[in-house]
Amino acid sequence: MDTSPHTLQTLFAQLGLPSDAGAITDFIARHAPLDPDVTLPDAKFWTAAQARFLREGVSNDADWAEAIDSLDAQLRH
Fold this sequence. Notes:
- By secondary structure, the chain is an all-alpha fold.
- It has a single domain, classed as Uncharacterised protein PF10982, DUF2789 (Arc Repressor Mutant, subunit A, Orthogonal Bundle).
- Helices cover 53% and strands 0% of the residues.
- It contains four helices and no strands.
- It is globular, with a radius of gyration of 12 Å.
- The N and C termini lie far apart (34 Å).
- 16% of the residues are buried.
């Protein structure tokens, strides 16, 4: 069982995206601000698999929910 904390770095790695600090900063800068009417999983920049992972992570209040919420908040500022 994986008990390591889920951070933005591990979330990006799980999503198959570059996960170093610079890549995360660039991703957020490229995609922010996210339209307030669009839920994070419905943003056009995700693949179907990434969107499904994000949707399930939030709806199931999974271990990933906190990292997903953090990404969502950063994309809205």
